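Re: export button greyed out
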Amino acid sequence: MSALSWPLRARAWAWRDRLPSLGTTLSLLVVGFVVIAAIAPALLTDRSPTAIDLTSTLLPPSWQHPFGTDDAGRDLLTRVIYGSRLSLGIGIGATALAFLIATVLGFAAALSGGAVDAVITRVIEVAFAFPALLLGLLVITIRGPSLATEIIAVGIGSAPGYARMVRGQVLAVRQAGFMEAAAALGHRRLPIWRRHLFPNAMRPLVAVVTLGIGQSIVWASGLSFLGLGVPPPSPEWGALLDAGRLHITTSWWLEILPGLVIVLVALSVTALGRTLQNRLGGASR
Amino acid sequence: MNQVWRIAVKVAASVAVIVAAASVTFFAQLAVPGDRATALMNLQTGQEKLWTAQELAPLNERFGFDDPILLQYLHYLGGLFQGDLGTSYTQKRPVADVIGGQLPPSLILTVAALVVAWLLALGMTLLTVRRGRFLSGLGSAWEALTASLPHYWVGVVLLVVFAVQLRMFPIIGGTSAWGSVLPVLTLAIPLAGFLGQVTRDEFVQVLRQPFVTTARSRGMSDLGVRVRHVLRHAVLPAITLSGWALGALVSGAVITENIFGRPGIGQVLVTAVNTRDLPTVSGIVLVVAAVYVVANLLVDLAYAAIDPRLARGAR
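Workaround output, generated via the alternate export path:
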């Protein structure tokens, strides 16, 4: 984008505008921590997530065990740290799948127009009649619960909303002056689509992808919470919640603390997505 | 006449969406890998083996697995219009019977949550919008926070604090009024945050309108202006979203019912997914989709009633 497309500002760029706000900084810290935990969990803790210690079962949070211990005496904070890789991976995988489906459907609909567009738009509309969780549960029933199923379930559940956005985005960009200019210059259709249409249609969706990852993490742990995702010996965050439900009357930390981590991560990712959205210029919701 | 025609078109479109949704659930049942009769036999006997044609014959006969796909499809659609949702694989009785009794508690839960969420959101809006920086800030921060809380965490926190620690409510409440307080709040709190955010934005816009100044100049009290004039405009976008919210509420209800051990379709659904009882899962999904489509149709029609500009066709 050229400088001409920037909105006119009443005052010049101030150095303060470039600095992230307090909320953005905190969000970056939380996300940074989780990303490190996902890549190299051993950097953050020297305990093992599977070390069973039957002399210290169901201990409440203390200095030694900040998140307490579970019914096998495993340190809960260590398990949350080791679970980051799975939870983050599922969230990113599901969002990637959702956007792949959405991009194919959205572009196919907007570029072909006519009957194809009508059919795809109707399909998206019908998919909207199913709440995302139920669409996901249908997928799980067909495939049986597993890690791959969980990613596919969340991905398919959230694809319709993105597909509608991509279609709108492509339709809007097609009207842009630079598309007409490129066609007038005699470029062929495919290069125009690749060099002008695709990047310009997808750029505003970068922020939406970020928001989507936060949502996917929450949805996926919801499925695991119901016992329909990754099964409990796994330290995936939702599976931790599922395992903790047995002891909810005696050991609150097993539910509240992993849940709090999910909420914090989801909030931070969402906050970062909003910041991105503001910086990149508003994308349609 | 124009009015009747407009409503007829909307109703027809909704019926078409429901039929399309039924097609999705029908073909989902075909998507199970392998032979359905074999899968069913394994499920019912708890064995994993290849069955002979004679052993599978009664099942094929009963469920019509051998008929041409098109015939099965038409049979399924025809059955739906007579209230036949298929037969549960595990319970061996009509899906409509399995979910019929479980539907009322779930409906009560979602509708109660929708009402409570609206009351909470309206209360917050009326009390905090443009009431000074502190109150406004507090209100919008609260809404932003609650809108992003997952149902399972809200439910678990409420359960631990109010049922386990304070012992104000039963841990497993069943469908009693007192036992329903926490499940309803679990569903209502995130939704109230969401509705509040939307209403707040609109409320601020409307407060700047000339007719607000006019009302004030007539000597109307601040609360009077807010309730009589501003609210009517400010709730419109949130009403549109309430139809959408019903979908989110149903998803939340499935989780909430499981947290509080409350009877309803959520419990049946999770059991059915676990036992891979596809007809029951499909039946529930389809009923929910139908309720959702009908609710959105009603919202669409209600919208015209609240905003007379739309009813006259002057969009």
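Chain A touches chain B through 38 residues (CB under 8 Å). The button fix ships in the next patch.
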